[in-house]
Amino acid sequence: MGAKVSQLLVIICLMISMISAQNADIATLQALKNAWQNTPPNWDNDQDPCSGSWDGITCTNDRVTIIKLSSMGLNGMLPENIGQLTELQILDLSYNKGLSGPLTSAIGDLKKLTTLILVGCGFSGPIPDTIGNLESLVFLSLNSNGFTGQIPASVGNLTNLYWLDLSANKLIGTIPVSNLIMPVGLDKLTRAKHFHLGDNQLSGGIPPKLFNSSMKLIHLLLENNRLTGTIPSTLGLVTSLQVVRLDRNLLRGNVPSNINSLINVTEMFLSNNQLTGPIPDLTGMNVLNYIDLSNNSFDQSNVPSWLSTIKALTTIKMQKTNLDGEVPAALFSIPQLQNVDLSNNLINGTLNISSNPSSELELVDLRSNLIADFTQRSSYRINVTLVGNPICMESGVTDKFCTVPIESPSSYSTPRNECVPLSCGLNLVSSPNCHCALPYTGLFFFKAPSFSSIGNFSIYNSLRDSLMAFFQRTNLPVDSVSLKNPRRDVDDYLVIELDVFPSGGNPEFNRTGVLEIGFALSNQTFKPGKEFNTFVFIHENYADFFPEISATALTRGTKHKSSNAGIIVGSAIGGCVLVLLLVLAGIYAFRQKERAETTPQQSQPFVAALGDPTSDSDIVPQLKGARSFTFKELQNYTNNFSEMNNIGKGGYGMVYKGSLPNGQLIAVKRAQKGSSQGGLEFKTEIELLSRVHHKNVVGLIGFCLDQGEQMLVYEYIVNGTLKDSLLGRSGIRLDWMRRLKIALGAARGLQYLHNHADPPVIHRDVKTNNILLDQRLVAKVADFGLSKPLSDADTTHVTTQVKGTMGYMDPEYYMTQQLTEKSDTYSFGVVMLELITARNPIMKGRYIVREVKEAMNKNEELYGLHDILDPIIGLSNQLKGLERFVDLALRCVEDTGNQRPTMSEIVKELESIMELVGLDPNTDSASSTCASYEEVSKDYPSSNDSLFSRNEGSLPME
Ligand SMILES: *[C@@H]1O[C@H](CO)[C@@H](O)[C@H](O)[C@H]1NC(C)=O
Ligand SMILES: *[C@@H]1O[C@H](CO)[C@@H](O)[C@H](O)[C@H]1NC(C)=O
Ligand SMILES: *[C@@H]1O[C@H](CO)[C@@H](O)[C@H](O)[C@H]1NC(C)=O
Ligand SMILES: *[C@@H]1O[C@H](CO)[C@@H](O)[C@H](O)[C@H]1NC(C)=O
């Protein structure tokens, strides 16, 4: 009897505890709902969440076992109550950028958790040590957040882990391995196949203990950290490895000689380190597709002969690795070879691309070597670049291999099916099956594809097919997918945009559709195939889940906010889609403005750091729409301000090349610390640049006022300064037509600054070094460090301390210190003379203005200037209009300002000279010989700049 009663009591107790656990789960879900904004609407109903009525919640026996809320647009913190869901196995909160704050240590209470996915959220603070208690965990993805602090050693406790991704955070410190004091570390993760720790700030050496022969690791990604010391030879023990990325660290010393025991490696990146000793011998790595050893300090040696024995190679990158001797012709016969970059070496002799090169060979880059001849000089069919070799320094060499190839990012997208695309309402897109719908969008980042050719479109088509097949197999409500705009970013990741369209004729996905698609991609359920290897997918907001956005029926462009604007920018660079993109940009600009008016909080990323406590309030600029970057961001985008990214010295500091996560190239001007004058110039420049928007003026994207740094972020202008091109340093041949167009472009930029900028701006330092050329050779006026706005009260002159550059400086301004617009006119006149002579304004004590005046005889053809003209400009019978050009230049350099023309008058006269020469002054491209973009530019109206003005620093101007 007593036994029975006690049995009954036990049962009742069990039942009570079960019920209370159930109730606790429901209470916990309520707590989540209260902690978050923008939860799925059906979370507001009164039904039991476990009855299937709450999107994203799955229960087993009335306990919550799965939470999938990918891409829901959730906002808020993760409350510590989450720890009470002790039966939870899968937690996917990926792509909710609004989920922020620390990751609660209560996460460690989820003992049954197998899958924890927080990729692409906004979490910050340290990863809690309690993560090590999740003993069932198989899949851990905390990448692309703002996590700080060290990698907790307790991660090494997760012995079931298969996937560890902590990349793209702000993690510091060393890679933890076990030791006597702390018996756990990453070396204990012997079941793991993926260590993805790249794009952090990890430091210290790569511990030899990290690797052992019982590991199953296939992907080791440690790129873009601050790792020091040597590559441990224990790495050679992990023979299962397929992808090794150690690039962009501070690794030193010899590469261990046993590295070639990694015979299953298909992609290896050791580039951008400080490795020394012999170039590693990779003989035997027979499945190696992609090798990048660039930018190291290896011993000087011949191009290795073992390269040609590795028949799987598609890509060889050995830029700046001290290679000398000739390139063996056999190298080019590697059957699938696509891309060879041996630039910036000491390669000499004759280039001989074998008689039978790989049919896939797309680019052979041998820039800046010592090559004197080229066997196939007149009969080659692949792209070869020999700029900066003796062979291209013979005067007048105009072979195609002596020009820098114009990189035109592909604007490819996978083809639609046979149907007529619809023109859809503003917020919808015509799907590949020609239905109007709102696609689920995002970016694929492939971190180690086996190929380097971006232009092999069939590969994207097959990726699309396998993705579509995957969605069908998993019964997801997908009608079609499209992939577009493949490109490489600074990390050398292959970036591809994805659009997924809803099935069943629905114009949009419902919440379950979105969260399941999000999970399939965040959980890596989709396998992209061998060529693509590992990927990270980052989703963008799904507009319909933001009531405030969808209510105003915004465009697709708006919904994507800054990052997609950048994609548009990226894809817009060069190429034949220009017109279309400009229209898109116009719509975008317009929408952006509209949205700024309707939903002010949505334009946050563009709001300047006006209230930023970290910035120095004295120099916080009054901005109209440049973006504020953190120091860390710019550090990431410029490869930690590496020497390789350094592209020059500007007015007040170094200039670095970089690229935004969306692929847009940027130039970052970094002020030298502690320069007070720099501080003033900094403020001036941001304020001015954020207000000027013209296609002949370099656009400001943003700035950084963080950690005592002052940086300006501009659009990157690929072809560098006009000066470099005039001096033959860029490999671009400037004929008379191109020079005329460049002069007109620069004049229009200055005219805009004088007459249309608000307030008007006098540049004060007009010179060929401050005129940049984009890939279509459109001139862009740069460097406003010295610019001075004209105040309303005093538009005729400004008294100021004299600044400028000798040789270009208006003598009247120099003597009187009265600055007027005509001072820019003077400098521009000097630039015009430099344009036709390619001489420095002051050379060996002789002044260009006087030289021209003295050499000139108005009675002769070309004013008798033959001897002084740059020979590259063209034959004298092709220099129509040159006399008028010289007349104009000399009027610009008259002694007194009031004798000189205004910039508007100069523009008019240059336009008229162009018409005389038979050029349409309104075509935009300065190329008269490059057909690939001629056609586009005809249709491109150059007079509609106003359409784009004030667009928030993300204009596809090119
Ligand atoms: C490892 O996991 C066990 C079991 O969950 C736990 O007791 C221990 O504290 C963990 N160790 C560390 C270092 O986190
Ligand atoms: C290397 O790859 C081959 C073929 O995929 C496989 O059979 C072999 O087990 C791999 N070697 C190691 C050490 O993993
Ligand atoms: C090329 O460079 C190698 C190594 O520096 C040197 O031995 C050789 O003589 C050079 N060949 C020519 C043709 O200059
Ligand atoms: C040469 O390069 C251009 C631009 O990158 C590319 O479009 C073209 O296909 C290449 N040519 C060959 C033969 O690969």
Plain-language structure description:
- It is a single chain.
- The protein contains 17 helices and 48 strands.
- The chain is α/β, with parallel strands linked by helices.
- Helix 13 runs antiparallel to helix 15 (882-892) and helix 15 runs antiparallel to helix 16 (903-917).
- It has a 15-stranded mixed sheet with strand order 2-3-5-7-9-11-12-14-16-18-20-22-24-26-28.
- The protein is 22% helix and 19% strand.
- It is globular.
- Strand 2 (57-60) and strand 3 (63-68) form a beta hairpin.
- One 2-acetamido-2-deoxy-beta-D-glucopyranose (NAG) is lined by residues 239-240, 264.
The CATH class of the domain at 722-956, by name, is: Mainly Alpha
Helix content: 10-25%
Mean pLDDT: 81
The tally of beta strands, per DSSP, is 48
The assigned CATH architecture of the domain at 722-956 is: Orthogonal Bundle
Biggest beta sheet summary: 15 strands, mixed
Shape: globular
> Low-confidence parts lasting 5 or more residues at pLDDT below 50?
547-622, 791-796, 926-958
N- to C-terminal distance? 89 Å
Q: Rg, please?
A: 31 Å
Helices and strands, with pairings:
Blueprint: H1 2-35, E1 36-37, E2 57-60, E3 63-68, E4 75-76, E5 90-92, E6 98-102, E7 115-117, E8 122-126, E9 139-141, E10 146-148, E11 163-165, E12 194-196, E13 203-205, E14 219-221, E15 226-228, E16 243-245, E17 252-253, E18 267-269, E19 274-275, E20 290-292, E21 301-302, E22 315-317, E23 323-325, E24 339-341, E25 346-351, E26 363-365, E27 370-374, E28 383-385, E29 429-430, E30 436-437, E31 440-446, H2 457-473, E32 478-488, E33 494-502, H3 511-522, E34 535-539, H4 547-550, H5 556-559, H6 561-572, H7 578-598, E35 627-629, H8 631-637, E36 646-649, E37 653-659, E38 665-671, H9 676-689, E39 700-706, E40 709-715, H10 722-726, H11 736-755, E41 761-762, E42 771-773, E43 779-781, E44 788-789, E45 798-799, H12 811-816, E46 818-819, H13 821-837, E47 842-843, E48 846-847, H14 848-855, H15 882-892, H16 903-917, H17 931-938
Parallel strand pairs: 3-5, 4-6, 5-7, 6-8, 7-9, 8-10, 9-11, 11-12, 12-14, 13-15, 14-16, 16-18, 17-19, 18-20, 20-22, 21-23, 22-24, 23-25, 24-26, 25-27, 26-28, 35-39
Antiparallel strand pairs: 1-4, 2-3, 29-30, 31-33, 31-34, 32-33, 36-37, 37-38, 38-40, 39-40, 41-44, 42-43, 45-46, 47-48
Bound molecules: 2-acetamido-2-deoxy-beta-D-glucopyranose (NAG) (4 copies).
One 2-acetamido-2-deoxy-beta-D-glucopyranose binds at residues 362, 381-383, 405, 455.
Protein name: non-specific serine/threonine protein kinase
GO cellular component, one term: membrane
Transmembrane segments: 565-590
